[in-house]
Design a protein that fits this description.
- The chain is α+β, with helices and mostly antiparallel strands.
- 40% of the residues lie in helices and 14% in strands.
- It contains 7 helices and 4 strands; from the N terminus they run βααβααβααβα.
- The radius of gyration is 14 Å and the shape is globular.
- The two termini are 23 Å apart.
- The chain binds guanosine-5'-diphosphate.
Length: 139
Amino acid sequence: MSGNKTFTMIKPDAVADGHTGAIIKMIEEAGFKVVAMKKTQLTSEQAGQFYAVHKERPFYADLCRYMSSGAIVPMILEKSNAVADFRTLIGATDPAKADEGTVRKLYAKSIEANAIHGSDSDENAAIEGSFFFAGTEQY
Ligand code: GDP
């Protein structure tokens, strides 16, 4: 059975461009409840830890630089079938391939600066949520 929580973060490009409010509005209108949220900035080391699964990929160093380049807004979200429904809402990794009306189609600049993260499994949602919100109350 799929879980009812997922983890997301609005990435530095979208925060810097002033799209935080519009993106949260899309998330809420799609039926997700924000149960934890903050604004913060990662160090390059923390970005490296978060994206450790991509360590061997050629874009890893660039990704760590980009993800630590400015403020981000991480959130834990709640909804039935949260992980899959959220991936549908945000669209494909590459905005050129993202469906019309998705967050990435509307706000992503490139395959790297793609506006938003969404966990790809219940297990990763729990790990990634704990990365930012361990011990935090959820409402
Ligand atoms: P996601 O699950 O859709 O976020 O995609 P991945 O897990 O495959 O990649 C993680 C993140 O790495 C993406 O959201 C992008 O920010 C970045 N990324 C993925 N593929 C590429 C690529 O080919 N080049 C660059 N520069 N960044 C990439």
